[in-house]
What we know:
This protein is an alpha/beta fold.
Amino acid sequence: MAFESLTEKLQNVFKKLRSKGRLTEKDVKEAMKEVKMALLEADVNFKVVKQFTRDVTEVAIGEDVMNGLNPGQMVIKIVNDKLIELMGSETTEIKLNSSGMTVIMMVGLQGAGKTTTAAKLAGKYKSKGRRPLLIAGDVYRPAAIKQLQVNGEKVGVPVFTMGDKKSPVDIVKAGISHAKDNGNNIVLIDTAGRLQIDENMMQELMDIKAAVQVDQTILVVDAMTGQEAVNVAKTFTEKVGIDGVILTKCDGDTRGGAALSIKAVTGKPLLYVGMGEKLKDLEQFYPDRMASRILGMGDVMSLIEKAQEEFDQEKAAEMTEKFKKASFGFDDYLDSMAQMKKMGGLESVLSMLPGMGGKMKDIQGMVDENQMKRTEAIILSMTPEERANPDILNLSRKRRIAKGAAVDIAEVNRLVKQFEQARKMMKQMPGMMNGKMGRMAKRGGFRMPF
């Protein structure tokens, strides 16, 4: 995930600051040198880093901070506040016209994820009761039109296309007429990209803007390209004019510096971040939440929102009752695993919890996706009766299950044992609230099977 390395380095710097009872100006400046190096290694723009560390240092060596009761914690708060300021302070939405149609043009280099992002946005607008239309304006890239049609179908949004023989300007003009005739109130134009910026691409975009009323021009950039993403954003701002940026592929092994640099370099807000390949994996960009993640303080609000979106409330209530009575079966384990997958997996959920940011490398080693798949295979190899009532699992049944899941019988025994421990723990839950849970954890008494 983005920022893991930066989070770890910043937490080490803050740990040193917290350990000091009083801070000197020298302590702050040394800490800021380390912060500066960490930001540069995360691929944050050099000028942005220089200004950021200067601003933090100026406030941090002020009298109120140095003479405060907890100066280390106060410096961390200053870093947090300045990070939020750097990324835009407030969450910015794509501005939609209060009446009539809003035309949004998606621009960017080839491979940045424009086509998928256009469909993701269209899906979001549809879920909010809007009537979006996607226009296939990329007539150069092979299968670009087909990709948009497939993604449009997945989110239930119509796609206007005239094939790849007409000019993009003619397609866009006809598409907007079609939207007016069919009552669409949001139009998203997927435009062509190039492997690098060239004059023909820029001219084509300017021709579209000259031919139709474009209300919002949204640049899509790839977080994996690091500083190049910032340079691309700067060029598009100067040559075409943009209203905001969407940063894709933030779930990959990227250093994440672009997220911290784009607003400062271009003056344009970061609107959304792409956190996965699925059409629902487009998250609103919240500067305060991102700062919290970077500093290893988690992102509980996003976790709650994700849970509210993905969890079936009735099922959750039913599961709670089963846990209380310790009457859950293996089907409930499968449901829990499915819900966890919907939220991006265990690793994604843990990364949003406070204090986990700098420990993700350790967690990645502990979360074995293959083990989770084997657990699922074992449970699916059981009969409905066995899943509902694990007490009937004798040796012959376990052998059949192991054979069906293509695992050793020892894995089946281990899963059943962990399941029994889980049920036992649920029965003892009231007692655990009085401190027994801590003692059980020390003895290593219970471990979830996935």
